[in-house]
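Honest question from a wet-lab person: if I give you the sequences of every part of a complex, can you actually get the arrangement of the whole thing, not just the pieces? Trying it with mine:
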Amino acid sequence: MTHETLASYANVSLYSAMVVLTLSMLGYAVYLAGLLPARDAAVESADAQDRELVAAGGGTVSSDASSDGAASPTPTDSEVPLRARKAGGVAQTLAILGTLLLFASAALRGASVERWPLGNMFEFGVASALFTMVVFVVWGLRRDLRWLGIFVVAPVLVLLGLANTVWYTEAAELMPSLKSIWLVIHVTVATISVGLFAVGFVVALLYLAKDRFGESRGVLRAVPDSRTLERLAYSLHIIAFPLWTFTLIAGAIWARQAWGSYWNWDPKEVWTFIIWVVYAAYMHARVTRGWRRQSATWIAVAGFACIIVNYSIVNMYFVGMHSYSGL
Amino acid sequence: MSLSTQPADPRRDEGIAQPKLGTLGLLRFAWRQLTSMRTALFLLLLLAVAALPGSIFPQRSIDAVRTTDWIARHESAGPILDRLGFFEVYASPWFAAIYLLLLVSLVGCVLPRSKVHWRAMRSQPPRAPKRLERLAAHESVTLDGSPDAVLADVRAALTSRRFRTHSHDDSTVSAEKGYLKETGNLFFHLALIGVILGMAWGHLMGWKGDVIIPVGQTFANTAARFDTLSPGPLVDTANFEPFAMKLTRFDAVFETDVKGQGQFGSPRDFTAYVDFTKEPGAKVEKKVIRVNGPLETGGGTAFLLGNGYAPRLTVKDADGKVTYSEVTPFLAQDNLYTSVGAVKVAGAGPVGKQLGFAGLFLPTAVLDEQGPRSVFPDALEPALALSAFEGTLFPGGRPQSVYSLDTAEMTQLKNKEGTDLLRIWLTPGQTYTLPGGQGSITFDGVERFAGISIRSDPGKEVTLVSALVALLGLLLSLTIRRRRVFVRVAPADDEGRTVVSIGGLAKDDDEGMGEQLEDILTRLKERRT
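Yes, you can. This is the full assembly:
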């Protein structure tokens, strides 16, 4: 197969992924819509139970258990309407399919140019979308994340749309300074951690929204209680943070090989460092007495804002040695 | 600071009740403030903010020309920002103040914590609390066997789960594990100090020098031979390693395929072939320097950071005597290698009658209504576009760039008719005879040059190892859980059975504590059957 054919297959694969992910997003939306009444019912029955117990002088119910019950009345699967459950299942399958298609697209693109497909902004965009989906799908195999689906798939689609329109670059060979095994190591790990940070960011936002607007407001009723959300966000960040640290170290090793010095205060380096410092501050804030979890989580949100700036503005407008956007 | 798994030090509160602090007290107060988590957190956020301007404004150390240009274009803001250090952010006092305070705060926090942790590691887990059922995770089972026998198995079960155990009395076991969490955390923070020390050492003892070597020429590693040299404050520039390298060939490959926006003419591969001699008289080794493939020279590392063209030029006087014959590097200004350079013929005549040429080298030249320009970076149709000057080349002996003429005391030559300024257009092999018996200039051919940067950073290994230790410490501190488990046994009401109460105490949120207790109980039951 010629390189051009492979490149066009890569694009077909990418478009298919976008169609599949759009359907997946719709499925998640239907699931959430079905989950809401079920959750309300669960809350009501939990309240009713509480009242009965109280009426019967049930001092045995510890305060802990009842507040937990009210905050997170997880309806068992059988209480969710069949149609919603079906939609959720289909959405989950489509999310996996979409992820595989994204993977195929990146692999075909790599094959068409005979190099690692992380050489320009379009390819970064696709890879970030891919790894965000991988994080979500793999995590989803371990716990029920159907409530999170729409909040992850929708931004991923936006990212893919941007990559396809604004950042699209024809498949091409790389400039000499990018031809290194460190491209594979440094950029891949960076993109994986961005995927983790992205999912962590979504969960963090849900936590902050839930904390701000109350546990049982609107669509927020369908997501877990704020305590759980906060913990989930943190656990994603503590996986991503060491990976980001590694990205920083690997980048420094590569910089020394390619540019002669491991640290050059290049804008991209500076932003990678800023992101690292901001997330480090998040981890510190979370264990600092006198700092509320909400404030700490805001720092994590700021961290992801920095990632977005690093990905877009720094790539496209700041003059530096990392100017490989391909635009 | 940070992620501490140590219990808060109760002594921190002492002294608060004292009505008068005194000087010493005030210092202690300041020290406590500085080393507190809140301050560390504030400094961290401040560091992130302070690093920002360096990515927005051009930095003098990275691109001096662009910096000067920026200041000139912003007449009012430029000089003010310059005075505030915005063009030298990472060397500015305020940036240094932040990271030094952070460093002090880090040391002031980590050292006492190390001491506390050292003691904790050598001491036994604390006595079990009176009422285990008050702990967040707790359970109680009744097993066959005497309390003593059960307790022995409890200890074994805990040990098999890597708990450190200790009995303060006959009916309890206290156990603890996950000390590595705090160890990792401390190593992470101490290693950050190592990173900074490595950087400082590299700054003091390291050096970098840039040199342009045209094909066929030899570079010997002495301080004087570099075009620019920036040694660290403690570097002895008289004692560089005496290696030499001759550039025998330079290959450049550019994209010729017309595909993709902005890809045509993009660089694809650069390779410098050198004959390397480790020291005078040593055997010649054939070596290759590539982008991403530096050459270790022993006294430093040679990186290929640039390349360009060096036309071979000969200037003769009216009598045909050669006054200049040199391979003259021209510096590339853009991706198409439109290059600028100057020819300074000091021997053309007495001061005031010296000749100078300045202009462009164009690897693939086109001359049209847009003026002379290059349309492709490879040397396919090379040409020189020059202007000629007469006068004093080095007025006042001031230092000047080799790539441009200082025309302050020079006048530009005119064409034969004297109607217009003289414009010389030369392709390889051509000679141009200057009007008015000034001699001639010949473009003999063109060579490529390699821009080699030789750098030595003796601190880089310290920095790298410290960074890796920090990463390892970070992983330990984020993945390991510090857990305490207490077990109490008591004889059950029915003879020969024992009630086992178990409770777990964890730092922070620990969803897995209940599971941990289950696991221990399962192991215990296995041992009892």
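Two things worth pointing out. Chain A touches chain B through 55 residues (CB under 8 Å). The CA atoms of residues 83 and 117 of chain A lie 40 Å apart.
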